[in-house]
Amino acid sequence: MDKYTELRAELATLTTEASNPALDDLAAMSTLDLVSAMNQEDLKVPLAIGTAVSTIANIIDQLVLRMRQGGRLIYVGAGTPGRLGVLDASECPPTFGTDPGLVVGVIAGGDSALKNAIENIEDSASAGSRDIAAFDLNGHDTVVGISASGRTPYVLGAIETAKASGALTVGFACNARSPLGNLAELRLEIEVGPEFLTGSTRLKAGTTQKMVLNMISTLAMVRLGKTYRNLMVDLQAGNDKLRARSERTVIRATGADPRAASAALDSVDGSVKAAILVLLTGLSPAQAASALERRAGFLQEALKDSQPSL
Question: Would you identify the CATH topology of the domain 9-223?
Fold first, then answer.
């Protein structure tokens, strides 16, 4: 059996490659029916993710243990999964004030693949191995391999190399019993059924990946003290919108008026956490910065340490 015959036989067994008989003639449907049908398919995604919440929670807990010891979170994928990994990683610095090297997205083909499909690179396990080896991984790092099929050679090569380095590896696929799940230390397989457009895994599979990556990065940051209540208190105010959001966040956390919130932010070089601490405790800006440093940035703990003056 040649490799293409073998590949065709393998793809025929994948849920992500199956066809939905209820949608076998899209052109015959009205636009309203098409929109309704696609919406009904999309509704299956959060329900499918709901079956994996315990697994996702375990992944987050293990990730956080490693990040507290200086570890990084690295997503690796090809095509849509790779783009989604880069997207999630790129949002962490402005949202949580993280170093760009803490959460990283690796896509087969590099940055040019973000805008242009480079399909053949996903077939190279050696390229995946080479790209992930460049990170000089250690046992504190976590590498999440993302592949709708769960069989992408580029991702398998990356995970094999990451695993050999001692990093925690997660195999995130949308097919059960996948080669990726079998290879990684932690298996995350969420099946969402045939795609609206047969084989187009940028649809439900992509939505699943986007939602789960949001969970992993956001909830890891909650556990790392990057939030207060449900507020973004480590955001980086790099534009007018984010500066206004910083002020609103301080107001919500403290009840201060806009003028006081703005003045507090100015006094601490825009640090939302420090501004909240100054307003709620009466600490000076320098004292607030020291209190946060002692508590590794955990605002809740810094507040407990400080006697409120209000």
Answer: Rossmann fold (3.40.50)
| Per-residue tokens: 105 | 């997205």
> E strand or H helix at 300, and its extent?
helix 299-305
Is residue 122 flagged as an active site residue? Answer: yes
Closest CA to 85 of 219, 195, 212: 212
Positions of CATH 1.10.8.1080 in the chain: 227-305
Q: What's the pLDDT tens digit per position in 205-240?
A: 999 999 999 999 999 999 999 999 999 999 888 899
Burial 107-133 (b: 16+ CB within 10 A, else e): bbbeeebeeeebeebbebbebbbebbe
For residues 61 and 186, the answer to whether their CB atoms sit within 8 Å is no
**Interatomic CA distance for residues 216 and 73, integer angstroms:** 10
Active site residue 91: yes
Enumerate residues 6+ apart whose C-beta is below 8 A from 234: 95, 96, 97, 98, 221, 226, 227, 272, 273, 297
Secondary structure class of 9 (helix, strand, coil): helix
Pick the catalytic residue from 17, 41, 122, 160: 122
CATH number of this structure's domain 227-305: 1.10.8.1080
Select which of 6, 10, 41, 91 is catalytic: 91
Report how far residue 267's alpha carbon sits from residue 264's, in angstroms, rounded to the nearest whole number.
Answer: 5
Looking at the chain, the domain(s) classified CATH 3.40.50.10490 span 9-223
Tell me which of 32-46, 67-81, 112-126, 239-253 is least confident.
Answer: 112-126
Give kind and range of the element (H or E) at residue 45: helix 44-50
Q: Residue 107 pairs with which residues in a beta bridge?
A: 77
